Amino acid sequence: MAEIRTVLIANRGEVALRIARACRLLGLRSVGVYSEADAGLAHLRLVDERICIGPAAASHSYLDGARILRAAALTGADAIHPGYGFLSESADFAAAVERAGLVLVGPSAAIMRMMGDKIAAKRQMRRSGVPCLPGSDGALPDDMAAAQRLCDALGYPLIVKAAGGGGGRGMRVVHRAGALREAVETARQEAGRAFGNASVYAERFLQHPRHVEIQVLADRAGHAVWLGARDCSVQRRHQKLVEEAPPVGIAPGRIAELGAACVRACLDMGYEGAGTFEFLYEDGEFFFIEMNTRLQVEHPVTEMTTGIDIVRAQLRIAAGQPLGLTQADIATRGHAIECRINAEDPLHFVPSPGLVRAWHPPGGPGVRVDTHLHAGYRVPPQYDSLVAKLIVHGADRADALARMRAALDEMAIEGIATTAPFHRRLMETEDFRTGGVGVHYLESLDLETMTPRKDAP
C-alpha cells in the first residue's frame, strides 16, 4: 500500500467513524476534518490528526471542495475518502482531487460524471445489457409539441425525471396527456435550481415497484464482483428507512443474472471502487434507475451477509491493490436488516436536534450499531438527521426480525426524538413481516396506527 499513507476523511458522523476504523485496521494514518459545530464528533478521537475546515454551514465546510483540498495539503494527506453525501458524487470535486495529484477513494471523475447524468448512464447500461425502463432515448426536446408526441407514444402513466440528479427532486408523475406540459415545465425549473441542469427525460412509471440494488466492487486491473442484492423498498419521500439482504421472494437465479449484468457494465466502463446499481422490480422484471458511485448508507447489510469489509476493500482498491477474490469466492449467509435511526419525530419525521442526555445501545449476538452518538453529544440542526444505524443478522429472515425487535426494545436514547418507535411499529405490521412491500407502502399507511389509509393512493 505504498501509494497511500494518509487518508483525509471528508465527512462527519457515523460514516467518518466507520472510515477511521478501517484506516486503523489497514495501518493507514487518518485525518479528520470538522466544522465549528462538530468539534465533539466521535471519530476525531480516533484519527491521527484533526483540522477545522470552517463554520457550521455545509456550504462553507463539508461541501467546500477547496477547503477540503487545503486541509489535505496542510496535513500531508495523499488520499481522500468522501464517504456518502456531501462531495461523494461530485465529479467536479473528483476532478479537482485528480488535478491536485491526490487519490480519491472512488471511481474517476469521468465515470462519476457519466453516471451522474441519468441519460448517459442509461445509454451505458443498455450497451452492457443491463435492463432499463422504456423511455425517451435522451432529454425531452424543448419544443413541447415534439415532447408531447414522444410521451404520447410512450404511453401513460409516465414519470418525468431530472437528468442531473435524484432524491425525488425534478421528478413528476404524469397520468394523462393533458398534464404533461405543466409537469415538464415544473420539473425543469426544479431540476435547474437543484442540480444546475434543467434537462429532463421521461420513462414508464411503475405502479407498485420494489427497490432492489446490487453492490459491486471493481479494481483497476479489470476484475469485478457483485456482493448480493439488497431490498430498500421501505422509503418515505424517496428516502430509505429500512434495508435488508437478501430481497424476499425473488429467485436467486434472477438476482444472479442481474449481478452478472452489473459486473459486465463495470468492466465495460472501466469502473473502479465500490458502487451500487439501483433497480425497480415489478412483475418479475428489473429496471435500472441509477448507479451510486460511492459507499452506500446501507452497505452494512451486505457486509453482514457476505463477511466482506466494503470500506477496507475500497481503501485497498484505491491503493492499487487487486480485489483478491473472484465471484466463486463470494457466498451470502443468513439474513440482515438495517433500521436507520434518525433524529426525527417518529410520526411526522420532523428533525429533532438537541442534546443527547443518555444513550444505551443494544447488543448481543448478531447485533451491530454504527453510530457516532454518545451521552452528552449535541445533534446539530445543520446536517442530515441520521444518528445511528441498527443492523442485525440472523440465520434467516424470521430470526433477523426477532433480533431487530429485541434490539429496538433494548435501545434507549434520551433527550431527542428518534425514528426508533416508528421502526418498532413497522416490525409488527403483517405486511412487513411477510416481506416484499413496495416503495409506496408507507404512503398507504396511517403511520400512527400502521393501518391502511382510507385515502391511500
UniProtKB/TrEMBL annotation:
<feature type="domain" description="ATP-grasp">
    <location>
        <begin position="122"/>
        <end position="319"/>
    </location>
</feature>
<keyword id="KW-0443">Lipid metabolism</keyword>
<dbReference type="InterPro" id="IPR051602">
    <property type="entry name" value="ACC_Biotin_Carboxylase"/>
</dbReference>
<comment type="function">
    <text>This protein is a component of the acetyl coenzyme A carboxylase complex; first, biotin carboxylase catalyzes the carboxylation of the carrier protein and then the transcarboxylase transfers the carboxyl group to form malonyl-CoA.</text>
</comment>
<keyword id="KW-0436">Ligase</keyword>
<dbReference type="InterPro" id="IPR016185">
    <property type="entry name" value="PreATP-grasp_dom_sf"/>
</dbReference>
<keyword id="KW-0444">Lipid biosynthesis</keyword>
<dbReference type="InterPro" id="IPR005479">
    <property type="entry name" value="CPAse_ATP-bd"/>
</dbReference>
<keyword id="KW-0460">Magnesium</keyword>
<feature type="domain" description="Biotin carboxylation">
    <location>
        <begin position="3"/>
        <end position="447"/>
    </location>
</feature>
<protein>
    <recommendedName>
        <fullName>Biotin carboxylase</fullName>
        <ecNumber>6.3.4.14</ecNumber>
    </recommendedName>
</protein>
<comment type="pathway">
    <text>Lipid metabolism; malonyl-CoA biosynthesis; malonyl-CoA from acetyl-CoA: step 1/1.</text>
</comment>
<keyword id="KW-0479">Metal-binding</keyword>
<dbReference type="Pfam" id="PF00289">
    <property type="entry name" value="Biotin_carb_N"/>
</dbReference>
<keyword id="KW-0275">Fatty acid biosynthesis</keyword>
<dbReference type="InterPro" id="IPR005482">
    <property type="entry name" value="Biotin_COase_C"/>
</dbReference>
<keyword id="KW-0067">ATP-binding</keyword>
<comment type="subunit">
    <text>Acetyl-CoA carboxylase is a heterohexamer of biotin carboxyl carrier protein, biotin carboxylase and the two subunits of carboxyl transferase in a 2:2 complex.</text>
</comment>
<dbReference type="Pfam" id="PF02785">
    <property type="entry name" value="Biotin_carb_C"/>
</dbReference>
<dbReference type="InterPro" id="IPR005481">
    <property type="entry name" value="BC-like_N"/>
</dbReference>
<keyword id="KW-0547">Nucleotide-binding</keyword>
<dbReference type="Pfam" id="PF02786">
    <property type="entry name" value="CPSase_L_D2"/>
</dbReference>
<keyword id="KW-0092">Biotin</keyword>
<dbReference type="InterPro" id="IPR011761">
    <property type="entry name" value="ATP-grasp"/>
</dbReference>
<dbReference type="InterPro" id="IPR004549">
    <property type="entry name" value="Acetyl_CoA_COase_biotin_COase"/>
</dbReference>
<dbReference type="InterPro" id="IPR011054">
    <property type="entry name" value="Rudment_hybrid_motif"/>
</dbReference>
<dbReference type="InterPro" id="IPR011764">
    <property type="entry name" value="Biotin_carboxylation_dom"/>
</dbReference>
<dbReference type="GO" id="GO:0004075">
    <property type="term" value="F:biotin carboxylase activity"/>
</dbReference>
<keyword id="KW-0276">Fatty acid metabolism</keyword>
